[in-house]
Structure formats: structure tokens, C-alpha cells
């Protein structure tokens, strides 16, 4: 439809056409077994999100090594067994026309912790007695993520080389599982972010120091992933566009880094923020809708690269405004999709794009359209 809301127009990225601009963002679920394999919950969870009508549906992030997990309950992409286990999830997302996507992660110094609803604290002797043994975490420098947390091991040259290879192998496995879009998680205080930010990177070798040194690891990872990931499939990178702390990573640096990433074949910058210091996941912080959209807007304009906006985007009208005004090319919803997995379908109706439930599964749409007509019919 030529008069479709911009939010419900397609977007071509390399050889993939995303049918609309609504994205379900990667969200950790922390319900996998210690083997990193998905279970029935994951199949139901991602199948439900696939039915919801988003053009692009990300799974939670997949750890590229066992020690790259956040908790013992994260999904992984470090073994060949995980390829076959992920294929049904890919199929469930794609069954209703959404593009199946995933994200690669290494938690770095923010790994080896308990689940959020169990405190999100570093694993210790008490957790080991419950079967959740701590592991040695890794980072750019031997600096704990928070006071009192475990001290990570600073990666040496051999360790850096192994992890670059692990990211590439993760990309290869993700492609073999059938995913069509891949995102490298370089934000939120995890391993790559600890290299980018001067607050987390105190190295004096070629992987630290000035801007060129601090971005070297992400560029190397991105180059390796781009080489392993099929050329016809798009690659995203998630950045914390600002640290929002004195002396930290800045938006100016994010703009310049985005230019470099574009040059080596990154197709979309996924624009988030923060996460280097104290965890805010379990805290109550009041923020306005779309508070991170300005980061996506500036990077899109100045680096001339497509962007994805994320961060408390909750209303169809606001999401449409972001895309229609050219502030971002995609909008991602996270917790809103947990609250309402049919948000994209309902957004289409709210914007007048699908008044008769035509985009819903026919077995649902028939009933819902009949109910809507009955509700508007004159009383007898």
C-alpha cells in the first residue's frame, strides 16, 4: 500500500527484506540449562513473538563461549549441538513471516552472576553449593564491574585472538541454524564495551589507550564476523552510544566508530546506552518514551548508516513518528513485547493499516473481525 504508515513499510538490507520496521529486541530469558541449549519454553516464547507481527524478531543473545555467558542459564552458540537445537526456534519465528535474528555476546566482567530474580549478584561459594559454580571472567583490564565484584582477568594477545575466532565461529553456527540477521553485542558493559570505554580499558598495548586502540577489538571482531557471516545477510552492531558517566565513552566517538563499522560491512547500528557501571536492570529508573532515539538520529544523520532505535518505545504513534521523520530506520520493542506479544499487530490497527485483522492468523482474525463488527452494530 502506497499510503501505508512508514512503520509498516518494508526495508531491504542486503538480500533480506524486512516486511515492516518493528523489531523485537534481544532480551535474555535466563531459563536454559547449563549446556546452553534451548528448551520448550524458548520454542513457545519465540513462536509467540513470531505470531505477533514484528518484521524482525531477535532471540536473546547467544554466548560465543561458556565463560561468555551472563548466568548458567543463558543460551549459547559455542557448540555444533546448539545449531540443531536452535533450528526449530528459527522456523517458529519465520512461520508467520517475521525475519529470524539473533545476537552474539560475551558477557566479560559482567558474567558469572545469578539470575535477576535471584539477585543478579556474583556467584560465590554459596551458589556453588547450589550447583552454580563461579567461573573466571574476562575483560579488557582487571577492573571489577562493581565494587566488591570478582576481578576479571585481563585478556592477553592469545586470549584476544581466541575470542575473535569464537565470534566468527558463532556467526558461522548462527547462519547454519538459519538466522537471517545477526547483531554483535558491543554495549551494556559486556566484553566489547569494556574495550571501547576508557572507564573499562586501562591497557597500554595496541588494544587500549587512545580511541584507535580502544576500538580495535570491536573492529577485529566485526571484520571476522562479517567474513564468516554470509555476504547476502545483514549485520548489526549494538552500541552503548554514551556511557553517561564522566570520562566515559561519548556520542562523538559512537558517530566516528559507526563510520568505521559501515566501512567494514556493518549494515545497521543498534543504538542503546549505558551499562558500564552499576546494573540498572533491577532498579526503578523513570525515563521518557524513546529516550535513546536521539542517539539513533544523530548516528544515522552523521555516519550515514541505517540505525535501530530502542528504549521504552511503547506507543504506535511514537514509533511511527520516529521512522516517518527519519530519526531511525527500525524501532525495537522489548519489555512491551513481553507485556503484549501482539503489539505489532495492534499497532497496525491503531495506525489504520489493518482495520479488518487481515494480518492476524486467519483462525484469530475471523473471530476478532466479527467481534469488532458486532461491537459497532446498532443495538437490536
What do you see in this structure?
- The chain starts with 10 loop residues before the first strand and ends with a helix.
- The chain has one domain: TIM Barrel.
- By secondary structure, the chain is of the alpha/beta class.
- The longest helix has 21 residues.
- The strands form three sheets. An eight-stranded parallel β-barrel has the order 3-4-5-8-9-10-11-12, surrounded by seven helices.
- It has twelve helices and twelve strands.
- Helix 1 packs parallel to helix 2, helix 2 packs across helix 4 and helix 7 crosses helix 8.
Lay out the secondary structure:
Blueprint: E1 11-13, E2 16-18, E3 22-24, H1 40-51, E4 56-63, H2 81-94, E5 99-105, H3 125-129, E6 138-139, E7 153-154, H4 157-177, E8 181-186, H5 191-196, H6 211-228, E9 235-240, H7 251-263, E10 268-272, H8 293-303, E11 307-310, H9 316-324, E12 330-333, H10 335-339, H11 343-350, H12 362-376
Parallel strand pairs: 3-4, 3-12, 4-5, 5-8, 6-7, 8-9, 9-10, 10-11, 11-12
Antiparallel strand pairs: 1-2
Helix pairs in contact: 1-2, 2-4, 4-6, 6-7, 7-8
Amino acid at each position: 500500500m502506497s499510503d501505508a504508515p512508514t512503520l509498516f513499510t518494508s526495508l531491504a538490507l542486503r538480500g533480506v527484506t524486512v516486511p515492516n520496521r518493528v523489531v523485537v529486541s534481544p532480551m535474555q530469558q535466563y531459563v536454559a540449562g547449563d549446556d546452553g541449549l534451548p528448551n520448550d519454553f524458548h520454542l513457545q516464547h519465540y513462536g509467540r513473538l513470531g505470531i505477533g507481527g514484528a518484521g524482525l524478531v531477535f532471540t536473546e543473545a547467544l554466548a560465543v563461549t561458556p565463560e561468555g555467558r551472563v548466568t548458567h542459564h543463558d543460551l549459547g552458540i559455542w557448540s555444533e549441538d546448539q545449531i540443531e537445537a536452535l533450528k526449530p526456534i528459527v522456523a517458529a519465528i519465520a512461520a508467520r513471516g517475521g525475519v529470524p535474528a539473533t545476537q552474539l555476546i560475551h558477557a566479560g566482567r559482567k558474567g558469572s552472576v545469578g539470575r535477576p530474580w535471584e539477585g543478579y549478584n556474583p556467584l560465590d561459594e554459596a551458589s556453588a553449593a547450589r550447583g552454580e559454580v563461579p567461573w573466571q571472567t574476562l575483560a579488557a583490564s582487571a577492573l571489577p564491574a562493581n565494587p566488591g565484584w570478582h576481578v576479571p582477568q585481563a585478556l592477553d594477545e592469545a586470549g584476544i585472538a581466541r575470542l575473535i575466532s569464537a565470534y566468527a565461529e558463532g556467526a558461522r553456527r548462527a547462519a547454519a541454524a538459519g538466522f537471517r540477521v545477526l547483531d554483535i553485542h558491543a554495549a551494556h558493559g559486556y566484553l566489547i564495551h569494556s574495550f571501547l570505554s576508557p572507564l573499562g580499558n586501562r591497557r597500554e598495548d595496541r588494544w587500549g589507550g587512545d580511541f584507535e586502540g580502544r576500538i580495535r577489538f570491536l573492529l577485529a571482531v566485526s571484520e571476522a564476523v562479517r567474513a564468516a557471516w554470509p555476504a547476502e545477510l545483514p549485520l548489526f552492531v549494538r552500541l552503548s552510544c554514551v556511557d553517561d558517566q564522566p570520562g566515559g565513552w561519548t556520542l562523538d566517538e559512537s558517530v566516528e566508530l559507526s563510520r568505521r563499522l559501515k566501512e567494514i560491512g556493518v549494515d545497521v547500528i543498534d543504538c542503546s546506552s549505558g551499562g558500564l557501571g552499576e546494573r540498572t536492570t533491577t532498579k526503578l529508573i523513570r525515563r521518557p518514551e524513546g529516550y535513546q532515539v536521539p542517539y539513533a538520529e544523530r548516528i544515522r544523520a552523521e555516519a550515514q548508516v541505517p540505525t535501530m532505535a530502542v528504549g521504552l518505545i511503547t506507543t504506535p504513534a511514537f514509533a511511527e513518528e520516529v521512522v516517518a521523520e527519519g530519526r531511525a530506520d527500525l524501532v525495537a520493542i522489548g519489555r512491551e513485547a513481553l507485556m503484549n506479544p501482539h503489539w505489532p499487530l495492534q499497532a497496525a490497527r491503531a495506525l489504520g493499516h489493518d482495520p479488518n485483522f487481515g494480518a492476524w492468523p486467519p483462525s484469530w482474525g475471523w473471530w476478532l473481525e466479527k467481534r469488532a463488527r458486532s461491537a459497532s452494530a446498532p443495538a437490536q
